[in-house]
Amino acid sequence: DGKDEKELFEIFKSIYSVLQHEDILYFDITHGFRSLPMLALVLVNYAKFLKNIEVRSITYGNFEARTNLGEETIAPIIDLLPLSQIQDWTFATADFLKNGNADQYEELVKAYRKSVFTGYRVGDRKEAEALEKLTRSLRKVIDDFQTCRGENIIRAKNMDSLQSNIKELGMTVIEPLNPVLKKMEEAFGKFNSSSNCLNGFDAAKWCIEHNLYQQAATILQESVVTFFCEKYKMDIKKDSERKYVNMAFAFSYKLKNKETSETNKNKIRKEIDESEALKALMEDELLKRQEVIDAFNKLTHERNDLNHNGMREQPHASDVIKKNIRNAFEVLLGQFKKEDV
After folding, report:
1. Is the whole model's pTM more than 0.90, yes or no?
2. CA–CA gap between residue 277 and residue 120 (Å, rounded)
3. Do residues 37 and 6 lie in contact, with contact meaning Cβ atoms separated by under 8 Å?
4. Torsion of Cα atoms, 147 then 150 then 154 then 159, to 10°
């Protein structure tokens, strides 16, 4: 009867145990106890994740709302499937906002577009196409962040399309999706649509907010390097030129470090004197600031710790790594904003 937790779970197990992988379900809950519709909603969402089932129908015959037409008694059949679909969008929303994962959105949007174009669901075809277009743009932007595609991020190659798609779509008939579109606009609207190194800072911030700390450290540090390469007319794609920026930071740190011997400091000064690129970089105002040097050095340490899986002497604990990356981000963002990057 489902009169207590134990009996509810027995009903849950009884139904779940007979479901097969990728089953298609049609639920009629007309003659069930009033607690069972809620149990059914929980059950189908559980089975969606673990058995990849599809729910085609959840219906309820509302006998209390019956009407008489001549000799016939007619009771309306209520379609409760939208409740299950709202839950789908809700789970997808939570996953995106918390983890930055758009996989569930992609699947839902594809299914929505297919249902509209096949006539299975009433909807605006133009809106369905615009929604799918936006989702493709979102996927490209998130892929850029997750795989650290620096040039795409700084040049706003895919971000520009995403911003345009969000504005083009506006509000949709899918109510649970509208707040998410607003969140997307807030999160991605701050990115500069033209080439700008601060896009790398915004991408790093997004990664930190979604617990992608390895990506955050990489994107942030390489955006700093790219800034100096562009400032001093170096090729941002050439390792042979990017290395000068990394060397300049390393030399600045060692020259200011009391533990560096005078012999090593003299070697560093000699190497700087022999390179026009290094001399120019070492005179840069940003590279003279101790807080910038320390933050960059901290990022270097944490990137190495992450990339080497902690298999090194004195690896940092996870909470320390996260804290140091967040702190380095705050320092570098504050310093670079002063330069009107």
Report:
1. no
2. 64
3. no
4. -20
